[in-house]
Amino acid sequence: MAELDMTSPLLSSPSSYQPQTVLTVYDDQDYEPSNLQSSLPTTILHQNHNHGRTHNENGHHSSPNPYEFLRSGGFSVPASTTVDPFRNETPFISGIYEVIKIVLCLPIALARLVLFGASLVVGYMATKVALAGWRDKQNPMPKWRCRLMWVTRVCARFILFSFGYHWIRRKGKPAPREIAPVVVSNHVSYIEPIFYFYELFPTIVASESHDSIPFVGTIIRAMQVIYVNRFSPTSRKNAVNEIKRRASCNVFPRVLLFPEGTTTNGKALISFQLGAFIAGHPIQPIIVRYPHVHFDQSWGFISLPKLMFRMFTQFHNFMEVEYLPLIMPSDHQKQNAVRFAERTGRAMASALNVVQTSHSYGDLMLLMKAAQLQQDKPWSYMVEMARIESLYHISSLEAVDFLDKFLSMNPDPSGCVKPHDFLRVLQLKACTLSEEIFGFLDVEKNGSITFKQFLFGSAHVLKLPLFRQACELAFAECDTDGDNFCTKKELADVLRHTFRELDDEVQGLFNLFDTDNDGRISRDDFFYCLRKNPLVIAIFSPRLLRKNLSKAGDKMLDDIV
Predict the structure, then answer these.
(1) What is the mean pLDDT of residues 341-357?
(2) Within 10 Å of residue 50's Cβ, how many Cβ atoms?
(3) Please, are residues 175 and 284 in contact by the beta-carbon 8 Å criterion?
(4) Which residues cross the membrane (predicted)?
């Protein structure tokens, strides 16, 4: 390294070449037919087979971008967090101390099981009496019925006692309902809903599936539960409206929500759903801790029977509940639920002394899917779904579909897929374009791809502004006789511009597109296949690049719009 003297500049002078990034932002008016004609065909016509090369983060040239004809500038994959918010630290019994303790506690566990069963039955019968003949579920429960529910609430405290929570440390106090109509809490175990039922008797927001749980379904109905189907936009909208209605009326109990939407191990907060924050009411956050040394009480990635058995066989289980100060939404935050949720999340994370990640219930779905298919490291398939949903508007169900596709590529124990298996599943022939498609996903250029790279790349292509128009043009090229169907021969004629020699690949691709297996590819089949396999759109780029669409495509583009 050359020596520096006192006259050497600390910063070198800027070079004459200044790399710049040009972003084209489309408003709604940009999707007029004339604008489409000047965007997609012009883009296609001004490119050839020597696709522009993308640059990696260090500025070095990488493989050609096979999606540049869609105006893709490449994508980046954020580094994965080392935090696993769903892993239970003690999933198995280990150590002499734990074995001896469980043996000694077995007689106690039997007594606790009897107490649990008796409390559940008595609470269930009291709830049935309180609900008998009550039909007006849109209005608050009458006071005399609420007094009967005190029997069930006392039974809930006995249930906590049977699980080993002989005393529960509290810090702070719940604010009056008139001041804080909404309370939110972190969600670590199935213990918190039982505690809040005893302590606050609130209205809760719960999944529709909870209604069918024996005994429990009846008891939570007495809490005037607000049911929601997390996968139904209509159900979520109705739930938000009901939260607003009940929170704004003091005759209803306060509304309790677990904004994380699922249980975690308590070592982190995951992303918040916005249902509690849309109404813009003052919120009191509550945090729950389970201090432990030998037994992690969190209902993470562990079965419920195993967790209950471990609770029954402990001398005592510790639980701490802390009521945090109220969070009042500013005038701006009343209109912006995202900011209100972020502010609440920061307060809770700070009190818990943990980080808040971008994981969501979708990551738990991916984790469970990978574990169900016996992957060696199922936790490596979590991708922090909240970030992907924000960037690309990909739902959790769509992410699980992409995981199904990825797992069919036979990833190795580390969760990586090699080019051969990638091309096999997508029915692609080994050629230059296929290598470019794989290289587009292989952002680290190590000859393999992870599920996170596959998902980010697929979502990036799927959400490109010109993706749908390219699908329309590609199908128009395949539908040579204009009958809204594509035959195997028509598909082969189009793909000869991509693959010089076509053997079994045409049959494989035809089967991939023929989703209903009726021997021909309809327009719906074609679009459904590309939505499920957006990377495959690149195989039509040579045909679209060669053909002059500036005139022939004008009328078709008008029809598309």
Answers:
(1) 95
(2) 7
(3) yes
(4) none
Residue 264 CB: number of other CB atoms within 10 A?
24
What's the pLDDT at 502? 67
Instruction: Find out whether 56 and 261 touch, Cβ atoms under 8 Å.
Output: no
Per-residue pLDDT at 176 = 94
CA 440 to chain centre: 24
Alpha carbon distance 443, 450 (integer Å): 10
Query: Using CA atoms, how far apart are residues 388 and 481, in angstroms rounded to an integer?
Result: 40
Q: What is the full DSSP assignment across 214-231?
A: TTHHHHHHTTT-EEE-TT
- Phi and psi dihedrals of 99, rounded to 5? -65, -45
The type of residue at 370 is A
Contacts of 508-511 with CB under 8 Å at 24 or more apart are 508/427, 509/427, 509/428, 509/536, 509/539, 511/427
CA dihedral for 377, 378, 381, 386, sign (positive or negative): negative
How many CB atoms are closer than 10 A to CB 150? 13
Could you give the residue ranges of the DSSP H alpha helices within 16-78?
33-45
C-alpha to C-alpha distance for 305 and 295, rounded to whole angstroms: 15
Are 191 and 258 in contact, with CB atoms under 8 Å apart? no
Mean pLDDT to the nearest integer, 254-277: 94
Model pLDDT for residues 5-63, shown as the tens digit of each residue:
434 443 333 343 344 443 434 444 443 333 433 444 444 434 444 445 544 444 444 56
Contact 147, 247 (CB under 8 A): no
DSSP class per residue in 111-131: HHHHHHHHHHHHHHHHHHHHH
- pLDDT tens profile 316-326: 999 999 999 99
In contact, 220 and 206? CB cutoff 8 Å: yes
Specify the DSSP class assigned to residue 536: G
**Is the whole model's pTM more than 0.85, yes or no?**
no
Which string of b and e fits 352-370 if b means at least 16 CB within 10 Å? bebebbbbbbbbbbbbebb
Question: Nearest CA to 345 among 362, 358, 331, 363?
Answer: 358
Percent of the chain that is helix, strand, coil (3-state, to 5) = 50, 10, 45
Q: Which helix (H) or strand (E) holds 461?
A: helix 451-462
CATH 1.10.238.10 correct for 362-463? yes
pLDDT exceeds 50 at position 483: yes
The single-letter code of the amino acid at 210 is H
Cα–chain-centroid distance for residue 133?
Answer: 41
Indicate the domain borders of the chain: 96-357, 362-463, 466-559
Residue closest to 187 by CA, chosen among 81, 253, 269: 269
Type of residue at 437: I
Provide the CATH topology of domain 466-559.
Recoverin; domain 1 (1.10.238)
Identical fold at 362-463 and 466-559? Answer: yes
Predicted confidence at residue 174, as pLDDT, reads 95
d(CA 289, CA 327): 20
